[in-house]
Structure prediction request, 659 residues.
Amino acid sequence: MTPKKILLAKTGVDGHWRGVSLVARALRDAGFEVILTGMAKPEEIVSSAVDEDVDLVGLSVGGHIDVVNRILVMLEEDCPDTNVFIGGAIPPWAAKELRAKGFEVFTPGSKLEDIVHSAKRLTA
Amino acid sequence: MSDHDPVWTSSSGIPLESFYTSNEGSNAARPGEAPYTRGAYPGMYRTKPWRIFQLSGYGSPEQEGERIRFLLEHGETGFIMEHDRNTADHMYNVDHDEVIARKEDVGLTGAVIQSIRDYETVLDGIEIEKTYGHPGGGVVQHGPFALGCYWSVAKRRGLSLKELPGTGQSDYFLTYHACVTKQQVPTRAGLRFNADIIEFCTENMPHWVPVSIAGYNGAETGLNSYQEIAAVMANATEYLDEIQRRDRVSLVAAARGVAGVSFRISMDLFEDAAKLRAARKMWHDLIARRYGIDNKKAQILRIHSLTAGSAMTYQQPINNIVRGTIMALAGVLGGTQSMGVSGYDEAISIPSEHAHQTNLRIQQILQEESNLCAVADPLGGSYYVESLTSSLEEKAWEFYEQIQNQGGFLESLDSGWLHARAHENQMAEQMSIDRGIKAKVGVNVFEEDVCSFEIDGFRSGSSEWENAKARLDNLFETRTEHLAKSSLSDLESACRGDTNIMPAVMAAVDADVSLGEIGEVWRKVYGNWNTPISL
Prediction:
């Protein structure tokens, strides 16, 4: 069986790599193919998701939630069938908004195995 | 691990006895005496309490100035300017396409400061001749611009650079190890900048710390206590070897300039206190042995401590006030010269004004109410702490040798070797928290919370990009264009030659050359660092 593909993208140019690299490693260990976009621009993140035909997009948030919302709108337009999950130091009010829209959100303190379970569920 | 015989270790993995009896590591020298394990100065906090030194700033230059004045009025004894990272770290103006792509992020992490005029706005009403200032420039490629602007503001005010107190940073750990920027100069170009800054300060600015190695950032990325000390020493070795090779200024004076560093203080109270003691001893030995410098001021390591942002939890954030206090106490017990405490809302957002105030109050309670300033090195002679201090020193020298065997500190960054060491620890730490081996209150134990309110996180507006763009347009419209252009070409010549770049940087910013234009010179002359990690 070909492994499911996950695109992990940082939404800002803040290069804290600790979180995203741990998540990438945990997902690879669980058998996923993980593509990292570096600090791509929002448009580039969306076009990578389309070009690579990924099964799931993970947004690593470092910055303003409005950038995330903008990316989510573009993803919905360009690859409406691809699921998205979101992680990072997202303030409670913003996490609440994202969850209300139906996204799974992983804030600091989340377990890697919960993130992996979520990835399995969202790509099943 | 069996339940009957749990293994107790320090946070860096040093095995711990259940109690200590011998005093092998004990050092009879007094505080203020070589090798300075017991403290940098004889009187320590009786003579001078540690400096309360907090990060501050967001939004516009006006807002940042307001926040700094707020902290100074509330008892802070120095200030650190925070810059918008999208622009400052990358040396981009706001009209750069990388910044335009994420306009909403602009101003979130600090003020957008693109010119000397923005510096003048932030510093308006602050007596910089009397206040210990950190003008930003935490990032290596941003250092020359930040210092150039601050010093030029001082000159415009008629102040003498000889009297100006403050510190630069230009730290490698920040963007070459911890939080890697998308685009920055190669590490060797950074060494040129930093050595120029060290030389400039050595010759002209006796009260200015030219660069400050921030072990903090390496530790936050995952380096453990002894790896952090070792990496700081290896970084200093690169600077001092370069100054020695150039042979233009006194190595003794330069060593004194490089001797102001920062360390992370985290939640292992005794190991973190012992770390500062071990670091002072190692610095003394490095300076005395490797460089043969027999000068007290050069042999004394001056330490700025920062409490670990990563120790702060998203859950039950009020508990972080306790964590901040414990960590700050470790810094004081270790004999820090200055300290910044991370906000209780650190994991949630950039600090609110209330979190800033609380950070100050934690330090003030320690300084004013707890009788901690009375006696130097209160842990000195403790069997346990002396043993930890020796173990850390021994392990740190081993790790230092490993870095040297990699070809030195810069090479260990270029190859990704130092990142790999951090990553191993990151994974181990995450696993031990996920599996409940390492307790984190509110995260993996005692998760119930009866508190009826939650901290929502600081909300910033998102019009900073527009404001900054308007200031930039105004700068370009109102500056004397030919002076700006000729000073830029002078700067490029200085970069291509081997004279000190700082006079050319100061002339350029004084001629209203902007942040992004100086960044363009860097990119043209030096190109980009090849990032060794994928993210």
About this structure: The longest strand of chain B covers residues 260-265. The two ends of chain B are 34 Å apart (CA to CA).
